[in-house]
Every structure is written in C-alpha cells, then in structure tokens.
C-alpha cells in the first residue's frame, strides 16, 4: 500500500524544474537527495520528466527537508549558506513594524546582512509599489530562476500573512526568457508577466504599504512551524479588493460595466472576484449600489440636472427604477431629497 500524500493542496502545479533545482543543491554539497525526495513522495524517475509537476504539499515537504538537511535555506544559491532559521530571523526583524511598507524595507536591509549576492529593495511611484531584486554577484546559472522566484515569493508570502490580506500583484518581471513551464507563473504571481526584463521584480497597489501588520510574536511562532506554504499557496483574502472595486466603479465606469470587465481590470477572473468579495463580507452588487448611491446624492445636491439625467448618469435605465432604488437607500424620493424634505 502506498503511504498517503502529505497534507495540503492536491493540485500538481509546481514545476519539476524547481524540484530539479533542489536536487542540484544536494549535488553542490555532495549529499544524497534520496531522503528528501522520499519525504515528499517524489520518485526519482519523476525527475526525468521536464513537464512534470508536484503538489504544493509535496514541494513544501521537499523544501523543508532539504533546507534542514543541507542547513542552507538558500539551497545553494549564494556564495555562503543561509543556516536553518535565517528566514525566521527576517520575519522576526520585520514583524514589529507599524505597517507593511516599513516591514518590507526592514526585510531588505536584514536580507543584506545574510548575503550581498542580491539586494532586495522597495520603491514607490505614482501609486505603485515595486519590490526589486538586484543581482550583485552572479548566481549559479542552473539555480538562478529558482533563486529569484523563491526570494520574491518568500517576501510576498510573508507580506500577505503579516497584514492578513493577499497583496494582489499588478505585474511581475524576470531577467530570463520564458521557461518551458511559464504557464505556472500566473499561479505563482499574476497574469501580467514580463520575461527578459532587466531585473526581477513585482509591483502592487501602493496602498497596501500603509496597512498595519496584524500578527504578533505568538502568531509568528505558529506560522514558522509551517512557513513554506506561504510561498507555494496564494493567500485568498484581499483587504483592499472592495476599495479597489469602488475606485474603478467611480473613475472608470465606462470600462467597469460588469463583473468580467472589472475582473480583467484587476488581473483576476469574475469567479475569483465574486468569491473574494464574499470572503470580505460584501458583494459586487452591494458595492455597485453604494457607489451609485454616493454619486446620486452628489448629483442631486450640487446641481439642477433633471432627475431623469441623474438616473442615466448613475447607471439606471429609467427614472422610475432610479426613484425606487433611491427610496430604498434614503427613505425619500430623489425629488424630496433635492428639496430637502428629509
């Protein structure tokens, strides 16, 4: 009888190329990867399949075993090893930060104490925050992709966990050509990808940087017992999603006409959009009604535009349906509201 798979996600989506990279790390240290592969229930013959995939749980088991057995959380990437517990130290150095922006900057500074082979930095411009990796020392050619992808995902996973919210990425870039397993990258990062870029980076809404950290030392100790899932599984909750939907409905109403259009603007799918809003305790219809109500009140207060035109401006087909909705929102008709009879 075959033993049960490790607990966790069952979808085999992690590229075999990353498993092969860990096996090469064993080669660097002159050690046998057999026990690590057995812990992850990956048969040696599977390594030969370049199109093969493993589950998140298998990859977590492999990573954890290899990092401890090799005593190198960098898995051979850098000119010196990062002993077991190094990334836990980075988490502890950042967890007391007042907000995510300070936490990411601390992460970059303390990562430099571990190695100067790469530098991790945070930049903000025009409402967009970008995490960048600059390679200061040539990385091993056959480990470079895995190194850069992992370093970006370690920080992204920690950031999402720390603020108890998925940090939805707008764009991700990589300084190498699209690999054969490029179809896995949207699952790891986002749909908007740039290969052959000058450096490894990803960008997201700058407002995430102002969100306060939601975790304490006790939560951190619990997380560190199984920290690796943060790098292989997407964090579902998004504290800014409702706010971003409201903003699009206000500023780009002609484009954000329905769920699919909104989802496209958010680099998501309509199904995911509805699910995540539900997780936040709201719905797309509720946010649409909220935005319509705010705009209708603003239109009625600031001018003498006919009520029929106000109805069309806020997305109603006719004055009657607008009046009915407005009464539900405010307890008064649009005319009564304009005359101050409320």
Give a quick precis of the structure.
The protein is α+β, with helices and mostly antiparallel strands. The protein contains 16 helices and seven strands.
Structure description:
The protein is α+β, with helices and mostly antiparallel strands and 342 residues long. It has 16 helices and seven strands. The chain has three domains: 221 residues, no CATH class; 42 residues; 54 residues, Arc Repressor Mutant, subunit A (Orthogonal Bundle), CATH 1.10.10. α4 runs antiparallel to α5, α10 crosses α13 and α14 packs across α15. The longest helix has 19 residues.
Topology readout:
Elements: E1 12-15, H1 16-28, H2 34-39, E2 53-55, H3 56-70, H4 86-95, H5 100-114, E3 118-125, E4 128-135, H6 144-162, E5 169-174, H7 185-188, E6 193-195, E7 200-205, H8 217-225, H9 229-232, H10 241-251, H11 259-265, H12 270-279, H13 284-302, H14 307-313, H15 319-330, H16 334-338
Helix pairs in contact: 1-3, 4-5, 10-13, 11-12, 14-15
Labels describing this entry:
16 helices, 11% strand, single chain, elongated, alpha+beta, Arc Repressor Mutant, subunit A, 3 domains, disordered N terminus, 7 strands, five-stranded mixed sheet, 342 residues, two-stranded antiparallel sheet
């Amino acid at each position: 009888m075959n033993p049960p798979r490790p607990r966790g996600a069952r979808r085999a989506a992690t590229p075999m190329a990353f498993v092969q990279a860990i096996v090469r790390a064993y080669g660097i240290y002159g050690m046998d990867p057999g026990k690590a592969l057995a812990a992850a229930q990956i048969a040696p013959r599977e390594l030969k399949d370049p199109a093969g995939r493993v589950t998140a749980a298998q990859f977590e088991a492999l990573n954890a075993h290899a990092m401890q057995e090799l005593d190198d959380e960098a898995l051979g990437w850098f000119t010196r090893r990062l002993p077991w517990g190094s990334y836990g130290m980075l988490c502890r150095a950042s967890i007391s930060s007042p907000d995510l922006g300070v936490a990411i900057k601390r992460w970059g500074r303390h990562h430099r104490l571990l190695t100067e082979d790469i530098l991790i930095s945070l930049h903000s411009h025009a409402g967009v925050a970008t995490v960048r990796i600059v390679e200061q020392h040539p990385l091993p050619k056959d480990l470079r992709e895995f190194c850069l992808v992992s370093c970006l995902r370690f920080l992204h996973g920690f950031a999402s966990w720390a603020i108890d919210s998925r940090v939805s990425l707008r764009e991700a870039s990589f300084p190498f050509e699209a690999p054969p397993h490029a179809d896995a990258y949207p699952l790891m990062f986002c749909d908007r990808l740039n290969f052959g870029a000058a450096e490894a980076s990803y960008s997201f809404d700058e407002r995430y940087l102002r969100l306060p950290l939601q975790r304490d030392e006790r939560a951190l100790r619990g997380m560190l017992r199984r920290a690796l899932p943060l790098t292989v599984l997407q964090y579902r909750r998004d504290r800014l999603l409702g706010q971003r939907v409201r903003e699009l409905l206000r500023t780009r109403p002609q484009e954000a006409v329905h769920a699919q259009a909104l989802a496209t603007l958010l680099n998501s799918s309509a199904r995911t959009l509805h699910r995540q809003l539900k997780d936040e305790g709201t719905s797309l219809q509720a946010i649409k009604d909220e935005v319509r109500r705010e705009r209708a009140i603003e239109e009625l207060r600031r001018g003498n535009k006919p009520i029929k035109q106000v109805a069309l401006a806020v997305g109603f087909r006719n004055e009657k349906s607008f009046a009915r909705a407005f009464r539900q929102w405010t307890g008064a008709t649009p005319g009564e509201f304009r005359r101050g009879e409320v």
